[in-house]
Amino acid sequence: MLRYLKDSRAENAVDAATRELHGYVEKVKVRPEVRVAYMRLDEIIYYERKDAAKEAAAEATRAAQIRSILDLLEDFGEIPSSVLERLQAESDSDKLRTWHKLAARTGSMEEFAQKMG
Question: How far from the centroid of its chain's Cα atoms is residue 42's Cα?
């Protein structure tokens, strides 16, 4: 099975791009200042990706909370644009959770809009 794997050592590089890439890798391995800068860059990329994933998860949770509120309110008919805009503008998950409970307990769209604040 290993015989099908391509040998990636620098001496077996067949094109200019691969040879150039191996040259950069050698610089990283040999020069300490480049190695440190490379490791810092790798760390920055790691944390930026981690932060982006955390933000995406928070946005997905927020969108799901809003969708749940809207699902409950649709039973009362058309949702007023003022209520819709207010929901979409809210970024506090605790406030959205409170509104979700309110939507589950309310008796009408008007009551919800009034108690919404």
Answer: 19
Q: What is the dihedral of CA 57, 73, 86, 99, to 10 degrees?
A: -70
Residue 106 buriedness (CB in 10 A; 0-12 / 13-18 / 19+): buried
From 80, 71, 69, select the one nearest 102 (Cα to Cα): 69
Number of domains in the chain: 1
Tell me which residue has tokens 């998860």.
57
**2 in any annotated domain:** no
**pLDDT tens, residue by residue, 80-114:** 999 999 999 999 999 999 999 999 999 999 999 99
Q: Which domain holds residue 65?
A: 13-116
Task: List pLDDT tens digits, range 30-78.
Answer: 777 777 887 888 899 899 999 999 999 999 999 999 999 999 999 999 9
